Amino acid sequence: MPKVSVIIPAYNAMTYLPETVESVLRQTFTDFEVLIIDDGSSDNIVQWVSELEDPRVKLISQDNQGVSVARNTAIAHAQGEYLAFLDADDLWAPTKLEKQVICLDRHPSVGLVHTWMVFIDREGKSTGRVMTSNAEGDAKKQLLEKNMVACSSVMVRRCCLQTVGGFEPNLHFAEDWDMWIRISSHYPFAVIKEPLYYYRQVPNSLSKNLQVLEQAFYFVIEKAFRSVPPELLYLKNHSYGYANLCLAWKALQSSCRDCNLAYSYRQQAISYYPQLRYTREYMRLSMAITALQLFGNDSYSKLLELAYALRRRILNVPKLNSTNSFSLVDKSTQ
């Protein structure tokens, strides 16, 4: 019986999946199984997995039903005491599993442990940005306000999911946020304050994803606040504010970079939670919208590259190996 089950949903993911799996196989902790859920893909994933020599990697195929159902399928097949989630285009630092297993072994009351996150571009190059989180202990209040836990950074005890149930099958976005809120109602969280997870930013089609993401955010917020005590209801407007701030960023990061839509979401954010205008994230967003308006899409993209290069130089962020993007070097907190 493996100690850890690594769960990777995959839908036409072969562009990055080999690197993703390689980052798992290079873990310093080795007592794991890898469950890849082929969610109705039309690429060559079946052939690719069949040619892998590592017996820890297993493929489970199903009709296309979305990421939540894919993860639930894997959970039903998982044999590990601990479950670790990984998206098919993201990467892990080599010591990620080892440090999380140590944390859960040493702290039996903790139900979920997550890590900090580094942003990388589609080529696997660091943007120089590290997303930190202090969601630990009783994290429910923090999670009601906004999602501070990246899915691919998480390791959770399987017994937690037996308590709270699986991922919401009707959600294709924000399903992890819904799950973390439910777990936080029963178990303390822990965080390893090191960037051990690499999130790949790949521009998506705005028309296909953003409206669904908005609906998912609102679904999770309404569901979560149906059962909170009265003294926490004030957080609902905070939650809508942060959700709209995230949507504004997504509009800028989409393949078509819709400046007007980003501006609209930003205004909705401060209408729900006016104090957001004083946060660093709001100020960064406003600068990005202004830059896109002034310089246009092409020049804005070049400015981003310059900003990433400058940030990598100023901040000593984790660096990717020069020969392959899945060989990663850990650094301490930024």
UniProtKB/TrEMBL annotation:
Gene Ontology MF annotations: transferase activity
Keywords: Transferase
InterPro entries per record: Glyco_trans_2-like, Glycosyltransf_2, Nucleotide-diphossugar_trans
Glycosyltransferase 2-like domain location: 5-133
Coiled coil: none
PANTHER family according to UniProt: GLYCOSYLTRANSFERASE, GLYCOSYLTRANSFERASE 2-LIKE DOMAIN-CONTAINING PROTEIN
Name this protein carries in UniProt: Glycosyl transferase
Organism name: Chlorogloeopsis fritschii PCC 6912
